[in-house]
């Protein structure tokens, strides 16, 4: 009957499909590939993991030392660390050793860049923020500071970079969240998701947020309220494809209020309220 014929056709199709599937796997078996996932990794060579270049890392860490010694020559005596050698040991080498011992270095990947380079960029930002923090605290007349960023280096699971502020300061006007970021190529900008986070914190916790952008390339710093960007006429937001479509605003020259080769500005002269 017609119904029986349709049934036989479907059975033949199923058998044919099964044979085709089996034959494809039989073909991959010749390569010693037991599954599709294994085969994909094999043909893309994703199963071959490059070794971390320790000699390269040593040179990168030495470059961070050079940066710190240069910073120490730039800032006023009152805001420099008591011992630059101890700062280097605690903020560069101790942090690196923690990252290494927790197996995090190989996981430092970003858009195909080498882990060593991503590690260097992260450490460079961390070291720069830590070195300039005393100067920023002095400028803001802050008595205390607490690290509240979520760059927890104790494990891969806990290490993640979020748009949360780096520090919580206690100032004469109350608590203040401080986001420190640094630019090293003369390109200075602020990402909109940090503004959104600052607004959320202001609304929920009534704690204002300040951004300190350190333009290391040109020797200057911008300081502005993250939660009140509408007050800054020079912030022009646009979507940038090179930033994975993020909304970004460039920080123009008029946004910079402190030249590193000059004394710290007076807090009263800055429009931060």
| Distance between the ends | 87 Å
| CATH architecture title of the largest domain | 3-Layer(aba) Sandwich
| Main β-sheet description | 6 strands, mixed
The strand order across the widest sheet is 1-2-3-5-6-9
* Rg of Cα set: 27 Å
The third-level CATH topology of the largest domain is Trna Endonuclease, Chain: A, domain 1
Q: What sort of overall outline do the alpha carbons produce when their principal axes are compared?
A: elongated
Number of strands: 9
Poorly predicted runs are none
Strand content: 15-25%
Instruction: Assign the structural class, choosing from mainly alpha, mainly beta, alpha/beta, alpha+beta, or little secondary structure.
Output: alpha+beta
Q: Estimate the helix proportion, in percent.
A: 40-55%
CATH first level of the largest domain: Alpha Beta
Number of helices: 6
Order of helices and strands: HHHHHEEEEHEEEEE
How many domains in all?
Answer: 2
Provide the residue-averaged pLDDT: 85
Description:
The protein has 273 residues and is an alpha+beta fold. The chain has two domains: 10-44, no CATH class; 54-269, Trna Endonuclease, Chain: A, domain 1. The protein has six helices and nine strands. Strands 1-2-3-5-6-9 form a six-stranded mixed beta sheet, with helices on both faces. Strands 4-8-7 form a three-stranded antiparallel beta sheet. Strand 7 and strand 8 form a beta hairpin. Helix 3 runs antiparallel to helix 4 (84-101). The termini are far apart.
């Amino acid at each position: 009957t017609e119904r029986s014929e349709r049934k036989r056709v479907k059975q033949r199709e199923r058998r044919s499909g099964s044979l085709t599937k089996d034959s494809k796997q039989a073909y991959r078996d010749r390569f010693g590939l037991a599954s599709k996932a294994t085969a994909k990794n094999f043909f893309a060579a994703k199963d071959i993991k490059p070794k971390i270049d320790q000699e390269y890392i040593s040179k990168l860490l030495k470059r961070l030392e050079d940066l710190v010694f240069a910073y120490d020559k730039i800032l006023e005596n009152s805001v420099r660390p008591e011992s630059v050698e101890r700062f280097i040991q605690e903020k560069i080498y101790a942090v690196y050793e923690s990252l290494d011992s927790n197996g995090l270095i190989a996981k430092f990947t970003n858009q195909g860049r080498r882990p060593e380079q991503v590690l260097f960029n992260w450490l460079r930002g961390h070291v720069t923020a830590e070195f300039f923090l005393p100067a920023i605290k002095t400028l803001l007349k802050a008595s205390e500071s607490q690290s509240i960023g979520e760059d927890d280096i104790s494990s891969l699971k806990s290490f993640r970079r979020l748009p949360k502020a780096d520090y919580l300061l206690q100032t004469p006007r109350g608590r203040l969240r401080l986001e420190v970021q640094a630019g090293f190529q003369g390109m200075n900008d602020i990402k909109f998701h940090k503004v959104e986070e600052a607004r959320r914190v202001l609304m929920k916790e009534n704690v204002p947020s300040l951004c300190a952008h350190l333009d290391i390339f040109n020797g200057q710093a911008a300081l502005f309220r993250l939660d009140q960007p509408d007050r800054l006429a020079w912030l022009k937001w646009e979507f940038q494809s090179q930033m994975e479509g993020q909304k970004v605003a460039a920080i123009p020259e008029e946004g910079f209020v402190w030249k590193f080769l000059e004394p710290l500005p007076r807090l009263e002269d800055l429009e931060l309220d």
